[in-house]
Model the fold of this input.
Amino acid sequence: MSFLWRGTLTAPLLGALWMLVVATTVAVGFSFATGEAFRPSVLLCLLWGAVVGLGAVFRLGSVSMFGAVIGLAGVTLAGVGPMVIGADVGPVAGWGAAIALGMAFAMSFWAIVAELKPGALTRHEFEAAVIRFLTGFGYIFFTAIVVIPFYVMVMTSLKNQQALMQNPLDFSIELSRGWELFRSYAELFGQYDFGRYLWTSFYISCLTVFITLLFSVPGAYAVARLRFNGRAAFSRSILLIYMVPMIVLALPIYIAFSQMGLRNTVFGIVLIYPVTTIPVALYMLQGYFRGLPAEVEEAGLMDGLSRLAVIWKITLPLALPALASVSLYVFMIAWNEFLLAFMLLDDPSKFTLTRAVTSLNSSEVPRQHLMAGAVIATVPIMALFLGLEKFMTKGLTAGSVKG
Amino acid sequence: MSDTPIPPKGRGPLAKREARLAWGLLAPTIISVSLVVILPLLAIFWISVKPIGLADLRPPTLSVNEQLRDADEAEPYIRYRVRNTSQDIALTSARFSDMFPEGAEPGAVPEGCTYEARTLTCDLGEVEAGGRSEIRVPIIADDPEAMEDPLEDSEPDVVVKAPNILTNFEFTGENFARVFDGGEFWQVLWVTLLYTIFGTIGALVMGLFAAMLLNKSFRGQGILRGLYLFPYVAPVIAVAFTWVTLFDPFSGSANALLIQMGVTSEAINFFGQRPLALIMVIVFEIWRYFPLSFLFILARMQSIDTDMYEAADMDGASPFQKFWYLSLPQLVGILSVLFLLRFIWTFNKFDDIFLLTGGNAGTRTLTVNVYEQAFAISNIGAGAAVAVVIFACLIVFSVFFFKWISREEGL
Done:
């Protein structure tokens, strides 16, 4: 690698690669926003990126940066730039895209090569520039892969079948449609009974959280604090059970529920969901209980409180943040659960939200309805997540990697 | 903590009481978990050696059809048409009983039946497979036509004894023979391993990359961290269907984008052709689970002592050297734990593949095969046999898991 440690080599190389990244990003962004044709040209990207890169090491500073913006926008509009603008793209979108490309590239690239000189570089300078490049790439990459699917989900739900088939790239919002935009949502709630499913999912999840806590708090306390034979073995079997795949259990459960008439009942679901979450919750809580100072509890015992009173009056209030994260995590598992709901519920009046969305996945139901259903299932859990992120991330990390 | 007294050895009354309390507190969990986890696990072994189809879950029963006939004539009667619903299993001790409403009485009680407290009970004895018979009961009523609805509304109660395939002692080795038959099983196992290994490693590497990006404080760091967790937090149905929509060969945005960019000239069926479907499914797995590894690795990174890096700076270590010689060794522990856990969970993953491809186009893993055998081919026994194979793999992994994790995490 050391032959690359020269500003005159490193900068053009990084420039070429960075141009590829920026041009692709701008092209994809403008395609989605306007629905028109923008695409990066690989060879021209590499060429212009290298040229600007070479220029950047020799004459650093805001003047040449400004020049790069103008130059890149100019060559792009002339049709020989890193990004090719389709022939029938309107002037506003075309100019906008060209200037956006120039600015996005120049501003970020000057930051990447800020410390590079034309001559020999130290290992430090070289690696720092590469790391800045990788960092920039990483932010764009991760943001794109996360944002694009969710963006597509929301935008598809706001369109109609005809527009979707006509130009799948056009995600501009036709504000002129007014409330018509939300038609698929209105139809889901009106014709497909989604209000009921939302409610079913909500109370099933709440019940699951409640039952899980009821079972796992005493259990976790016992594992964390009390001495008994087989404690270590028990702690391990929790972990083991937590790894048993649901699909293995689903068959016998399906058979048993069929025979007992529990299939197709919300009661059956409420019976089964907590059991899948109790081991997780128990495992998370016992870790937290262990972290609490035992001295406070011992003081309570000395003052004549019974063990149960100690749990109720001392441990639980201290463990409130942990209870919050466990509850959120369990709520999330129950809300997102698909397999059991899919296998055990056939009657549309008893569907949970995930089961109902699955039933929209048929050729008779338009795509935008399915996506609107997906949005309806996602929004509550996202709202909860964003509102209580601190607890949620804690719950996720404590909950090991269940999923 | 060094002056904490060592707990006394042996078991005094206090220790015994404590142990009793502990088991008491654990009892609800143990009972419920045994019922829903241990019992089904045992059941799956039982089912896997039994010839059970989906149809066998509906045990054969007696269908009784009740009709009032000749209501407008001199001799109205009730006709009970009785049929064994199964074509190959005979019923024993079959009988049914029917309530009569006020104002109607049976004129004569047929042979084998009794009438008591407004209830007619008929004993049919044995009903052969597919057997049918008819019982006529004359009716005495003031206004037979008005009695039609009350008479027919009362559903007859049916009691039968039928051999239950689930509880008898008929066994077969055919389920396993079927599972291991031909090359299909090895194909499925191979796909499962590819999916698991690449999915796990991919998610770990991506998670490591994302964690390094966010392991410094800047404005908006919290927002990005929240954003990067979205794929994991969103319901699987929502994200899976979004991917299916996004990569749809006809109306998908991904294809439109690729065609416009000149990468491909015609639409690609991402989830419908080999081996692309398997690659896509693995990419989805990486996309959905990198947030988790990211979260764990970030948590570990933030607990690394910064002094070490300062010392390395003094010694003139370059950024990559610091990563390779300082950060990575600190992260090996969490990375190996994550690898093992994610490996097991990816191996067990069902929903994602099922929703994305339904196991078609060379993406059938063991878990999807369970569903496929049990519900698509309606052979519950074969599905259970695949489940047993999965469980055996799980046991093998767990041995590794406890050998390694116990060392890493001090469990």
Q: What stands out?
A: Residues 123-157 of chain A form the longest helix (35 residues). Strands of chain A lie at 38-40, 83-85.
